[in-house]
Structures are given as C-alpha cells and as structure tokens.
C-alpha cells in the first residue's frame, strides 16, 4: 500500500460511481489497492464496473443500488458498509437532471435534488466522518460545480445546493483537519460524462469543445484531497477565478449568466 492508501484506505465509498467522474475515481483508487463500495441507482453498470475492477486488481469491490434522493439512503449506505473501514468518502453524484426554469417544474423534482445534494450529503458526512475522526485519519471529497459561485437562471436549485456543499465543506475542513480528516470541496466545470452529454442534448445545446476529461478530473481531485478546503479544476489556488463578493460583482455575474441562459432558452 502507498502513503495515500494508508491514509485514506482500506475502503473507499463512492456515491455516484457507475460512470463519468465517479467511475474514474473508482478505477484510479482500484489501481492504488483500495477496496471499493460503489453506489448508484442502476445495478447493471455498477456491477459491470465492479466486475472489471475485481478482474484487473487484487481488491474487493461491492456494489449497492441506492437512490441518494431517498430518505433512507445514508442508513442503507451504513448497512452496506458495516464492518468495513471506510477511510475515504467521495460524494460524486450531483448533476441536475431537470433542465428547466424553477417554476416550470414540479416542486417534488426540486426536492429530490435538494435531498440528494444537501441532506444525503450532510448525513453521509455525519455518519462516515465519525469513525474517521476516531481513527485520526480519513478523507471526504464532495464534488461540486462552479454553479456554486453565483445564482443562474435555469439552475437555481442546483446552484444553491452546490453553494450549500461549498460552505459546508469549508467549515467541515476547518473542524476536522486538526483531527486528521481531510475534506475537499472539488469544484469542477464542464466535464465529458454521460450525464452531461445527456443534459446538453436535452437542452438542445452543442457540446463544448473544451470539456474536461473525466479521468483527468478524477486524478487532480485525488491529488488535492489533502489540500482543501477547495480546489477549482482548471485554476491555480491563488487565481481569483469565480470569486468577487461585492453586491455589484454578484449582480454583474448573475446578469452575465442570465444572458447565457437566454441564449440557451432560444436554442432549447
Ligand atoms: N459533467 C459536468 O460537466 C459537471 C460540471 C460541473 C459539476 N459537475 C458535478 O460532477 C459530479 C458528477 O457529474 P456527472 O456529470 O457525472 O453526473 P451525475 O449524474 O452527478 O453523476 C453520475 C453518477 O451518479 C449516479 N447518480 C445520479 N443520481 C443518483 C441518485 N439519485 N442516486 C444514486 N446515484 C445517482 C449515476 O448513476 P445512476 O444514474 O445509475 O444512479 C452515475 O453513477 C456532480 O456532482 C456534478 O454536479 C459535473
């Protein structure tokens, strides 16, 4: 085992593991000798990935079909993980499948998004960070989005959940770092994943030419796990990036997003 695996192993639980960045995390952790608990809703792609990883590496890999928007999601994760030392928790699932303005969708769909990205995320951290703290080591990565930095029409609830995740991760990083547990809010941008492709298709938008590769995104996230509380993919740590907190800057940024959104509406 290498230092990374000693610090964050022997088991990693990845929520949203069957494809895209989640599957990339799984493959890269398997290469490093981690045992894996892979969670998503669809059992078939999960099991296909798990079987490939078990064939390629001397690791244990189990799967659990869990809807992270369900009220019992973390309780089920706890049962699945029972007796296994989970030293790394990656909360990857989080994209917005709704593709609509706020009032043009049933509120139940927005509640599902909040449930998965906020309540399940928070409950999973509460459940899995406790044994990490007791052991004095471990890591938690919450995959975020640049949507966390500004309100934008069309992704109001999505952006708000990602803002919650960002602020929550920062605070948890400060609370747990002295106790040996690393927390990272990993803020990523447009990345080539099946969910993103599907969303762009639904919106009638062309795929950006500069989408990041899911394997590159996963690699950089794992490299920065101990350098929290935030890593913005594609930006150096000291770059201003999406910052800018004055009321005027926030207004300008939201209006700039709105212009893009009107363009998006016209195409949709
Ligand atoms: N791709 C991008 O361009 C982009 C940009 C910015 C931020 N991000 C962030 O990056 C992360 C990964 O995004 P992604 O594009 O790969 O899409 P995603 O839908 O967040 O992740 C896909 C994975 O999550 C699982 N999943 C989705 N909803 C689930 C649920 N309710 N319960 C259990 N599992 C669920 C999917 O499997 P099942 O469908 O089988 O459940 C799949 O394994 C997200 O947090 C997203 O917000 C992505």
Name some characteristics of this structure.
268 residues; alpha/beta; Rossmann fold; 7-stranded parallel β-sheet; binds NADP nicotinamide-adenine-dinucleotide phosphate
How much of the polypeptide forms β-strand, as a percent range?
15-25%
Q: Class by helix and strand content?
A: alpha/beta
The assembly state of the depicted protein chains is: single chain
**CATH level 4 superfamily:** NAD(P)-binding Rossmann-like Domain
The hetero molecules present are:
NADP nicotinamide-adenine-dinucleotide phosphate
The string of secondary-structure elements, in order, is: HEHEHEHEHEHEEHEHEH
Query: What is the overall shape?
Result: globular
Terminal Cα separation, in Å? Answer: 50 Å
Strand count: 9
Number of domains: 1
**How many DSSP H or I helices?**
9
CATH architecture: 3-Layer(aba) Sandwich
CATH class reads: Alpha Beta
CATH topology name: Rossmann fold
The helix content is 40-55%
Estimated radius of gyration: 18 Å
Low-confidence stretches: none
